[in-house]
Protein 1
Amino acid sequence: MSGKIKSTIELAMEKAAKLPRLTEEEIRQRREEEYGPRGRAIAELILRGELAVDRLDAELSRYDGEQGEIVQRAFLTSLCQAMDLEDAEATTRAFEGIRAVVRDGPLEEASSRWSGILRDYEEQRQQKFSMTEEAESVLLRDLGVSGSTIRLNLQENERWRRERSALLERFRPQVEEIKRELSDHLRRVTSRA
Amino acid sequence: MRLVGELFAYAWSGRDNNCNSYVLAGVLKDNRHVVIDPGHVMTPALKEPGLQRLCEEMEGDDLDPDAIGLVLLTHCHPDHSEAATAIREQTGALVALHEAEAEIYSHFGGTVDLFIGEGNLDLGTESPLQITVFHSPGHSPGHITLYWPRERVLIAGDLIFYRSTGRVDLPGGDPEALRNSIERLSRLEIEYVLCGHPYGHSGVIEGGDEVRRNFDFLRNHLLF
């Protein structure tokens, strides 16, 4: 009964010492969980046009060392994932955002390949759109609805949804390939830096 | 109730707010009907069955509600448009609305198949029934009215009522636009003004003289 009476802090420290220590992997994962969302949030601002590209450097440079790497990687990955054949505006902003961090030959090659894919897609999309519009117009005339006042809203049209979805599916392998290659390239470049 | 030619009028007689509906019967392929402003499925305050009542009244006139092929909406407010979604799902009917109303309508869960603007609308394949559509903003930005020259019928939505006009205090309302829209329509030769609500009257203003008196009243007492 001669033991020293321990303070609350000492008791807490003893308890904490008995807790299992985090592994290197767990520490890395926690940092990813903390700083990854910050990079993704900056990417969102760029994609929505709410952050000018010339202010990007100031945003990203708020983080340095390992934290900065995580933020930058998450930022670039988000921009790659946002590239979308149906959203030219977001895709343009994604490339502008990437260019603000990395500017090299492979990026420009990817950008040029994307433009080619987009051109093919839009050409085929326009063809399909015209064909669907014509087919639906015939159905409408058959039903007995015509005149200068009426215009089809194909965005809500089931046939057009199917056609567009099938077209996007055909282009998906090319789109995924370019996104994957670009992501891999950016990861290599930024981890060397 | 058959009003004139292929046109049937279904005035709302419930206690809660709902609109009058109008039907151009059998004018489309396979005798399908055109419904203008089907109203609420169920009125919001008193839970009166708007769509069910409309269907029963149509059946009473030997019109099959499952044979509706087109729903024309004068504007997107739910007391005119809510039942369009149910009719679309039940019958495969197309829904037509002015483009300026489409976004708000989508917030109510509605889907627009056809945008309808100012111009000519032909309904039917052989000797189609010809309707003139007027963009008539004021009560709402994309409000339309339908004029049937053959019978001199104006389907006025919520623009004109008996001795009254549509309200302009809801989002998108515009008193100046309402005045211009009414003034423009007053120049047409009209025998029937079919209003979007009864409001202490049948909602059907009948006879050229009575229609003129109504326009005069609006001009003299409400609009200027």
Note: Chain A has seven helices and two strands.
Protein 2
Amino acid sequence: MNLFRSEEHIERWLGGREPGATITAGTMCELAHAWWDTRLAPDWRPRTRDENQAILTRLGLTGDFWALL
Amino acid sequence: MNERELEFRNLVYGRFVELGRVPRFEELGFDPEEGKELLRSLHDAHALVLERDTTEIRMLNPFSAVPSAYRVAAGGRTWFANCAWDAFGVCAALAVDGHVSAACADCAEPIEIDVRGGAPEPDEHFVHILVSAAHWWDDIVFT
């Protein structure tokens, strides 16, 4: 999951490869905070697949590409 | 994940953040043989990532235990992160503002982003996720 200066840079980097998903750094930062904010909590427990999927959905990250196993 | 694995996992993460590096078994108060077994179980449960075929920790997501292209200044230290997601995740996990230093994966131009109140400044960059979510753990290092 790489950072790029612009969408044009992503296209050039892909070089004809099948693209995955592109999101803004703002959305990624929001996702990171929703995903990792309890990582160091002393009572941390693993989330379920459905809980993780709900985080993605809440941020509008839906569809086949974002479907967790 | 059983209670012993959870206890060990939380201890490893806590000491990692305290020390700024992977703790040794004796610093955790665990017998090395039991510790290695617990590390393997946690790796299998995707609670951390070991170097291939070893018990050396590579990732305590979102932190990287090895140098990477994503550096994060946060909480009075500089950390390595595994990817763009994890770079922001370091600030999230530590619950602090921070600064991400990376480079455009295409042109290698430096990218410097402040993270303030859970948002990037400037918010003008993009992240590309090549691997679909169902396959993230097929090869988490590549992902």
Note: Chain A has three helices and two strands.
Protein 3
Amino acid sequence: MKSLPPVDVVIVGGGWTGLLMAKELGSRTSLSVVVLERGGPRKTEDYGADMDELDYAVRLHMMQDASQETVTLRHDTTQRAFPLRQHGSFFAGAGVGGAGEHWNGVFPRVLPDCFEVLSRSTQKYGAERLPEDHAMQDWGITYDELEPHYARAEALLGISGKAGNIRGRLIEGGNIFEGWRSAEFPTPPTKIPYCSVLFRDAAKGLGYHPYPVPAATVSQVYTNPDGVARAGCTYCGFCERFGCMIGAKAQPTNTLLPVIQKHKNVSIRTGAWVRRIVHDSAPKGGRARGVTYIDAKGEEFFQPAELIFLASWTLNNTRLLLLSGIGEPYRADSGKGTLGRNLTHQVFFSAATAFFEKPLNRFMGAGAAGSRISDLDGDVFDHSQLNFLRGGTLEVLSLGYRPIANFGVVPQTVKTKWGSEWKKAALRYYDSTASIIFSGEHLAYKGNCMDLDPTYKDHFNDPLLRLTLDWRENERRMAGFVTAKAVEIARAMGAKEVTPFSGLRSYDATRYQSTHVQGGAIMGSSPETSVVNPYLQHWDASNLFVLGASSFPQNASANPTSTILALTCRTADAVVDRYLKNPGALA
Amino acid sequence: MRRREFLTLSAASVGGVLVYSLGGEVSRLSARADQSIRIPLRFFSEAEALIVAAAASQIFPSDETGPGAREAAVAVYIDRQLAGPWGRDRHRYTQEPFDEAAPPEFGYQGSATPQQIYRQGLKELKGFDRLGFDEQAQKLKQIEATLFFSLLRQNTIEGMFCDPIHGGNAGMLGWQLIGFPGPRMSNYDDVDKHYGEAFRPKPTSLQQMSGHKVRPSEDEE
């Protein structure tokens, strides 16, 4: 193995968090920074001819190559795990920009009480109401501490939306249930396509409080505080699973890369597959010394560094720590150890599929153009008489309707799935169908966790990550409750027929349910129950930081990117303002 | 080396077919009457391609609601997909142990590639294309629960609505049937208009829109 000249900083992963940290350090310090990204380079011009549903949305051109590495899954610790042989319930990104290139751009903040979900729920409902087997805990940070960083992240991306709460003043038309904001959104809301208008008006008529979805697909030309200008969205409808050809959707390559490229102290090495973090083995007060990686030609290198940021997405963050032997692996049977605990996946499903008589022109839209309600989110509604805790949002997104993905959805009265009768109904309803989507909280449980798989390996013969994951009664009951509400809204939208969600059973790895997989290297106020401190600094090695949703102790209903970026901003401040002056534990 | 196989598409004229489109109003498809064309096959034998064309036509028939899998050249699409990386499981995780009997929520856990699943499935359908229409439908009902049939159904939908660079959706027939315009640079002026009324811009393919040749993934090595 060849040892390379030492650098000040190594960042593992070139997605949202890795490139945001690279931009901050590149702009604010003279440190030498190397980003190691295992995928290839990317730029906006690559997306000029990517509006091909088959290659991008069906064959998943932008995702990790599952033939090289995947994860295994089992529902509980008594089962054997199966590898996810092709992408299904979530899509791990690859290449510069990572999943931040092919996301939808939905950018809500997490509700304030989510950060203290254990203490707030216990206080209000009593410990006996918490689910058996839960592993809920507070994040070690409050919403008020994070608010300025949310505002910074929103300014960076130019988020479009309407505030519902500015410093405690509630504003009709925005989300009045959200945490306070220091200011209005950087850009006005996106246009609202027709089927989302139907949802908005129906929800309002039923007494809910609809608001425009906060969107990184910006509504107008926007120049951010770094001087990076982006075009306004044209509603072409090719966001999710595609890169934006005009740069209207904020992506790491169009928002962060232009700044990074101005700084000679930052370099990005693509095709660099990091296999281990090399460290001194003292359990406390340990120290990371660098990383080993294999380049595209198959040659292995050791890259020494003073400071290491692990920013390689939820699952790979946890896997790299496990492979490197940093921290104590969690064991579900004894509850000992912290690394790999609190695996969660956003509770995400189509709560009601509504069939209309009129056409909806659904090919027009944007990844985050839509209308949403938070009346059934978090603890916004009282759970005293309910048999579950927490909740989520209902929305109709007009994200562009792809024909291969959506053709063939017919009302339940049509019993065939092929042939003339099916074809006739499928043609009739193709552009007259809308889904009300639920995005809900997933509480942490002692039995939902990650470790290394004993059987299956990646293409370098390293063990795959094994997920142990299943739903509990709390999520199943929540799903039943919101499904009934969504059906009411669908009827009020004027739907002639409505198909309700069939219910959550076992975790289904074949149904896409957002890429919001979280936990494993969670943050907290105690090293006994968390892997990183509230500055995302590893408890066992103060020069190692672990960025991303791997740090979330439980899954909020909100899509995670806003919170991931806010936490990364906060870490960047702590590193630049405090750590570099006096290296050591920040908490 | 096996002899070069061709599929002859006797594309029926669809120029005169009336289609009841989404608003219930009658529209006329704009596809021209193509002559017969001989298309070189990449994976299927001619006999296999004829069976696939007949079966896809059962799934998505040509009938009073408009043209179907036959006119859209779905069999050509499937042939190219099977010959490409997808058909060979180029990007699927294929490390042992496999388990054909794994619960469905873990996805297909067997070892067969799409190429193998089709080849095996087509053996069971020998002579299918020469059966009468109703007999064909009966035969497909018997295999409805198989992995082969679910792939065939999924691939038929893909071949109806993919961009024409992939060999299916010939003449953008599929897109015209459902009023999908294909890739469009901008809907800015229309996205908040036409509420409740069908807005149906003329379809363009990716190649027409981008103005240059686009290489589909099935042509990659």
Note: Residues 164-213+347-440+471-505 of chain A form one domain.
